[in-house]
UniProtKB/TrEMBL annotation:
It comes from the Bacteria. [4Fe-4S] cluster binds at C130, C131, C212, C215. One of its GO terms (biological process) is sulfate assimilation, phosphoadenylyl sulfate reduction by phosphoadenylyl-sulfate reductase (thioredoxin). It is an enzyme of class 1 (oxidoreductase). This is Adenosine 5'-phosphosulfate reductase. It comes from Devosia ureilytica. Its main location: cytoplasm. Its EC number is 1.8.4.10. Belongs to the PAPS reductase family. CysH subfamily. PANTHER family: PHOSPHOADENOSINE PHOSPHOSULFATE REDUCTASE. SUPFAM superfamilies: Adenine nucleotide alpha hydrolases-like (SSF52402). Catalyzes the formation of sulfite from adenosine 5'-phosphosulfate (APS) using thioredoxin as an electron donor. The active site is at C238.
Length: 424
């Protein structure tokens, strides 16, 4: 099971710095993958290393090495709910064949899937958000418990991986170990054949890199092995990897990536900023401005895609009362700290119109405002102000005990006698 040694990462970070990243990478022959793995497990991060495996086309090679060095090493498989049936069967085959003792499936949060991908087709319209919900988000709390983890990445797979070393020192104070960094496609095949390892059932059919079924296609002769992943899209990685030079994805921590605060944490936000000129038929996972929605109401109501509504100061949401249920989220803008009209909009949504979806505050959201926002019905906040982010994470919001303007029927305004207060 996952361990809880949250303090291990900085220690590992310091140890790798002490060894020297260049010196460490110079200790091993390019093809000495087993020695790289053994040194990482036994010397660099003893008891503090895990492996994340896709159980894809090349996975048997690295997992065979793991079984030789330490078959009890924690192995995590991202069970996205979108895998080929053949991949799920292959997981069980390799567990049995290699004698792996510590394999765990990681599933996406069911509430996130229900909310952001209710029809299971998010991969068609927004594959980045789909990967974020089904891969990056579920994996982060696992990797945070280890000082480092092993990957199966190889230099030959994409141009972005062409400078991949055996050991990476990442900016989130962890170590990535890439034992197969210098392996070619031919090396992988030769190793698999030499050790009589079971082949992924789809490999012989032309699937050279295998991920989720909807986003994986057959690779033609001469193509990049990963050309079949997200074919036709400007996408090369799912987001769980970034190279030491940051070329694949921005090397930031989870807290820096996420700006949506909900249910006590910064979480994934599949909603993207609204872009002027977006056609109603193309809009999905965006907050449509009120004026835009009114101008094209019929088209937006006919769209099957999840949408949000953006309410700015001065917008009259009372004119949209019959359409509010259409929106998965309503964002209320606070263009400045002193503009309080958003509080009234939130109260109307909750108290009069009984809107039960997400109500998020966007714009100038600062920690002194947040208690008022929560009182008025906001249940989500988009926060970019760093001191406010820290206050949320550290539970340092100001407390409010006295109210001049009460909300609902339970708050008593300062200066009144509760027993004289009328309840309407």
């Amino acid at each position: 099971m996952p361990k809880s040694n949250l303090a291990s990462a900085p220690v590992a970070h310091e140890k790798l710095k002490a060894l020297g990243i260049l010196a460490l990478n110079g200790m091993f022959d390019e093809m000495d993958a087993v020695s790289v793995l053994r040194y990482a497990i036994n010397d660099v991060l003893p008891g503090d290393l895990a492996i994340v495996s896709s159980f894809g086309a090349d996975s048997a090679v690295l997992l065979h090495m793991v079984a030789q060095v330490d078959p009890s090493l924690p192995v995590y498989f991202l069970e996205t709910g979108k895998h080929f049936a053949e991949t799920l069967a292959y997981v069980e085959t390799l567990k049995k064949t290699l004698g792996l003792l510590n394999v765990h499936a990681i599933h996406p949060n069911s509430d996130d899937v229900k909310r952001f991908d209710p029809n299971g087709d998010l991969w068609e319209t927004d594959p980045d958000s789909c990967c974020h919900i089904r891969k990056t988000e579920p994996l982060e709390p696992i990797t945070e418990q280890y000082g480092g983890w092993v990957t199966g990445r190889k230099r030959y797979q994409t141009s972005e991986r062409g400078v991949l070393p055996h050991f990476e020192l990442t900016s989130d104070d962890r170590i990535k170990v890439n034992p197969l960094a210098y392996f070619s496609d031919a090396d992988v095949t030769e190793y698999r054949q030499a050790h009589n390892l079971p082949e992924h059932p789809l490999y012989a059919k032309g699937y050279k890199s295998i991920g989720c079924a909807p986003c994986t296609s057959i690779v033609a002769e001469g193509e990049d092995p990963r050309a079949g992943r997200w074919r036709g899209l400007n996408k090369k990685e799912c987001g769980i990897h970034y190279d030491f030079n940051g070329a694949i994805a921005s090397p930031m921590t989870a807290a820096a990536r996420h700006t949506l605060w909900k249910e006590g944490a910064f979480i994934a936000d599949p909603f993207k900023p609204w872009s002027e000129g977006t056609r109603p038929a193309d809009a999905r996972y965006v907050h449509v401005p009120v004026s835009e929605f009114i101008a094209n109401r019929a088209d937006y109501l006919a769209s099957p895609h999840p949408l949000g509504l953006l309410v700015s100061p001065g917008d009259n949401i009372e004119t949209l009362v019959d359409d509010l249920a259409r929106f998965a989220s309503i964002a209320i803008a606070f263009p400045s700290f002193t503009d309080g009209r958003g509080y009234s909009s939130a109260r109307l949504l909750v108290e009069r119109f009984k809107y039960a979806g997400e109500i998020r505050a966007v714009g100038d959201v600062l920690q002194d405002q947040i208690p008022h926002m929560l009182r008025c019905g906001f249940n989500a906040l988009v926060v970019t102000h760093e001191p406010t982010r820290e206050a949320l994470v550290e539970h340092r919001l100001p407390e409010m005990a006295l109210f001049y303007q009460p909300v609902g029927l339970t708050e008593v305004p300062m200066g009144t006698r509760p027993f004289l207060r009328r309840v309407s």
